[in-house]
Amino acid sequence: MTRIRLITALLTAAVLSACSKDGVQNISGPTAGSYVKFFNFAVNAPSVNFYANDTKVTAISSTSCTPPSTPPNPACTSTGVESTTGTAYGAVGNGGLYSSIAPAQYSFAAKISAATDNGVSIAKLSSTLADGKYYSLYTSGVYDPNAKSSDAFIVEDDFPPNIDFTQTYVRFVNAVWNSQPMTLYANASAIGGNVPYKSGGAFVALPAGVYDLAARPSGSSTNVVTRTAVSFVAGRVYTVTVRGDMVSTVTATKPALDNTANR
């Protein structure tokens, strides 16, 4: 069975500095050549842990067990006990970091992390990962609590081959199942073209700065979702993803724009 580990030393530093607080589980293994970021963007989805085949690749552990168990669990003050928090709706697994995984074909799954229905898969997706490539995997659509299921898709994070460190790079991903193809705008500038559901556009260079973002349906001048005062830093690469329900007026589930740094 392929073994997987997180790819950055920053994660280790973050976990060590978060004494008695939730941290990301570090799954050790050999250095590998494909990298995946995991998003839980299925509307109303429960918190999940993500799996590649039978190996868990996202989780949260805690060194403080609250309330304490009887008898006391030694792992609460040493290696840590896995939290049932998982990756909530609207969140990115492993603190937004990529997981490293050996190039191969995988059956990915998002499994409920809570004590109730723990381990039940709400989304499955098969995909072949190439060496040296980066990917983003999403749960998407709307969660069906009766069938305990949602959609899922994966896109390649095809970074520009030559980064201009005086510029920033942004691309748009559409994770809204009941949307038309949409275009992302940063102020008055279009970030690529129309992006349909379960798709991502190319990374586009623009001057670093603070932007008001908006997504518009194909052929429309009307903004259907906005986000103001978003900072893009020079030399960094970002994915802006639209998630939610196009017809919802509830704050938690109405359309929103997520901004996540890729590198």
Fold and architecture overview:
- The chain has 2 domains: 1-157, no CATH class; 160-263, Immunoglobulin-like, CATH 2.60.40.
- Helix content is 3%, strand content 45%.
- It is built from 1 helix and 22 strands.
- Strands 1, 3, 8, 9, 12 and 13 form a 6-stranded mixed sheet that branches. Strands 14, 17, 18, 21 and 22 form a 5-stranded mixed sheet that branches.
- A hairpin with an 8-residue loop joins strand 10 and strand 11.
- The longest helix is centred in the first third of the chain and has 9 residues, at 9-17.
Please identify the oligomeric state: single chain
How many discrete domains? 2
Summed up, the helix count is: 1
Main beta-sheet strand count, sense and barrel state = 6 strands, mixed
- What class do helices, strands and sheet pairing give? mainly beta
Compute the number of strand runs: 22
Q: Give the termini separation.
A: 29 Å
Proportion of β residues? over 45%
Helix content bin? under 10%
Mass-distribution shape:
globular
Q: Determine Rg (CA atoms, Å).
A: 19 Å
- Which stretches of 5+ consecutive residues score pLDDT under 50? 1-30
Along the chain, the helix and strand elements come as: EHEEEEEEEEEEEEEEEEEEEEE
How would you state the average pLDDT, rounded?
Answer: 86
Characteristics:
6-stranded mixed sheet, 5-stranded mixed sheet, mainly beta, Immunoglobulin-like, 22 strands, 3% helix, 263 residues, disordered N terminus
